[in-house]
Design a protein that fits this description.
heterodimer, A: about 110 residues, mainly beta, four-stranded antiparallel β-sheet, B: six-stranded mixed β-sheet
Chain lengths: ~110, ~110
């Protein structure tokens, strides 16, 4: 199993550009999550999904969108990128009642 | 508001010494996680504490959970340089993990 994979690893965006951060897991986990981690801080939940077709907002959803059309994939869309979205983004997944596994992260800079 | 507080936020300790990191959380959750993060890396799961009074140990690290006090502790015994990292606790609440701000641990000779 590859576990949780994220692409790209690094990205630089200009203000106002859009992009999609990809997240895929091959463990057949129902639950998937997107977090952001600002320098020196903990993780803040952006969006999460309890299964295909179901998504919900976390603590900091503004400026982001998600979709969950399959169990495996949970892409995060940034529309109109802003400097405040400069962060490291982590995707995670877990089975019901189980432990959460994290992807390697995407480091995003918005200039 | 769901809140998880860790202290200290930064800990510089000498090799061979003992210390405890504290994690206070705000709800009646009975599931608490500890993670380790090395610089530039993702989070690595250390412990899952599933009930009041749970205690788990791995090497020089021991974690415990007191759900009545809403407190978890991560105790470090005889610290070594390899333990230098940032440690996060996270409370499980309604399908989600709420993370603390982390404790950055630096172990020096």
């Amino acid at each position: 199993n590859a576990g949780v994979t994220q692409t790209p690893k690094f990205r630089i965006l200009k203000i106002g550009q859009s992009m999609t951060l990809q997240c895929t897991q091959d463990m057949n986990h129902n639950y998937m999550y997107w977090y952001r981690q600002d320098p020196g801080m903990g993780l803040k939940l952006i969006y999460y999904s309890v299964g295909a077709g179901i998504t919900d907002k976390g603590e900091v959803p503004n400026g982001y969108n998600v979709s969950r059309s399959t169990t495996e994939d949970f892409p995060l869309r940034l529309e109109l990128a802003a400097p405040s979205q400069t962060s490291v983004y982590f995707c995670a997944s877990r089975p019901p009642g189980g432990e959460q596994f994290f992807g390697p992260g995407t480091r995003l800079t918005v200039l | 508001e769901l809140k998880v507080e860790q202290n200290p936020l930064f800990l510089s300790m000498q090799e061979g010494k003992n210390y405890t990191i504290y994690c206070n959380y705000s709800t009646t959750s009975d599931r608490l996680y500890w993670y380790r993060q090395d610089p530039g890396k993702s989070l690595e799961s250390l412990f899952v504490l599933l009930s009041n009074g749970a205690v788990k140990q791995e090497g020089r690290l021991m974690a415990s959970l007191d759900t009545k006090a809403r407190l978890s502790t991560l105790h470090i015994t005889a610290a070594v340089h390899d333990l230098s990292a940032t440690y996060f606790c996270a409370e499980f609440n309604t399908d989600k993990l709420i993370f603390g701000t982390g404790t950055r641990l630096q172990v020096f000779p």
